[in-house]
Design a protein that fits this description.
Elements (H helix, E strand, L loop, with lengths): L7 E5 L4 H17 L2 E8 L1 H9 L4 H16 L8 E7 L2 H11 L4 E6 L6 H5 L1 H9 L4 E5 L18 E4 L6 H13 L3 E7 L9 H24 L9 E5 L2 H10 L6 E7 L10 H7 L6 E6 L5
Parallel strand pairs: 1-2, 1-4, 2-3, 4-5, 6-7, 6-9, 7-8, 9-10
Antiparallel strand pairs: 5-10
Length: about 300
């Protein structure tokens, strides 16, 4: 499921600086798209129970804090319709459930800066949402700043880079629609992984990779030309490590790029959900829209 531009956006916050940055991004995107913004805080059940034991109604105080947090995080006078939600429950499950209940077209999450072991530092909530969500997830690094802070939208963001796989090319369509919404350009990149073989087999491996590159240029190039978009989508086909090549494409693309990539939904036969997404997020410091790839589309 992917509706770009979104009509409804869910931003999940935990009152951290990372979620403040993500909320700012979500509000600007909502303004850009004239979408409704839902701001959610998942209240820890154990904390709420402990507060009740002390005669405190934690939800009321949390709602007040969420209103203050939102007012201090988004551009003054923002015009997007805004709704607050304080829900008792485990964050991962609550985020996915409220996104479904409110028919959010995408979820926006913050991400702390990462180095070293990506999985260890990535964060269980963001990782859990990427694994379970049945809709796109926008992951925003805590180092992100808007190109034009005085505006209320995402003016100046771009270009959009689409990381596409064969035969699934829906990511390119979503990236093109996002680029059109942001009034920027879009490019596509496909990475053919290198084959790790014994030295005596390297000539055969290189020939096989070269054949895959040639096929990808023909097949994906034709698909992008016939895509239902008014934007031209130039294609680059690279070889090497997928995360490293995508990170390199982001680094050379400009000051404020957005990466759009796919992830395999939970239960897919194609391995761990979002495994490549985790590694890419560990190497980039830009907003990443992680697009669902249902099994029937693979």
């Amino acid at each position: 499921m992917a509706v770009i531009p979104p009509r409804s956006i869910l931003a999940a916050v935990d009152f951290s600086e990372s979620s403040r940055v993500a909320l700012d991004f979500a509000a600007r995107l909502a303004n850009q798209c004239h979408a409704t913004l839902h701001v959610l805080h998942a209240e820890d059940p154990l904390l709420a129970a402990a507060a009740r034991e002390q005669g405190l109604e934690l939800s009321r105080e949390t709602r007040e804090e969420l209103a203050r947090f939102t007012a201090g995080s988004i551009a003054a006078g923002a015009w997007t319709p805004l709704n607050h939600h304080v829900v008792n429950g485990h964050p991962t499950h609550t985020i996915c459930e409220i996104a479904a209940r409110e028919q959010a077209d995408l979820i926006v999450l913050g991400m702390h800066g990462m180095s070293g072991a990506t999985h260890a530092l990535f964060g269980s909530i963001a990782e859990g949402v990427l694994e379970r969500a049945d809709r796109p997830v926008f992951v925003i690094p805590d180092s992100w700043v808007p190109p034009n802070p005085v505006t209320r939208d995402l003016s100046g963001m771009g270009p959009v880079i689409a990381a596409i796989e064969r035969p699934h090319t829906a990511v390119a369509g979503a990236a093109a629609r996002l680029a059109d919404t942001l009034k920027t350009s879009v490019t596509a990149i496909h990475v053919v992984p290198e084959l790790r073989v014994l030295e005596r087999w390297k000539p055969h491996a290189q020939a096989a990779v070269a054949e895959q590159i040639a096929q990808a240029r023909v097949e994906l190039g034709a698909t992008l030309v016939s895509a239902k978009t008014d934007l031209d989508i130039p294609l680059s086909v690279e070889t090497g490590s997928v995360p490293e090549q995508l990170a390199a494409a982001v680094a050379r693309s400009g000051s404020h790029p957005i990466l759009v990539m796919g992830r395999h939904i939970r239960g897919s036969r194609r391995g761990v959900p979002g495994a490549t997404a985790y590694r890419v997020l560990g190497r980039t410091h830009v907003p990443v829209l992680v697009h669902c790839q249902p099994e029937q589309d693979l």
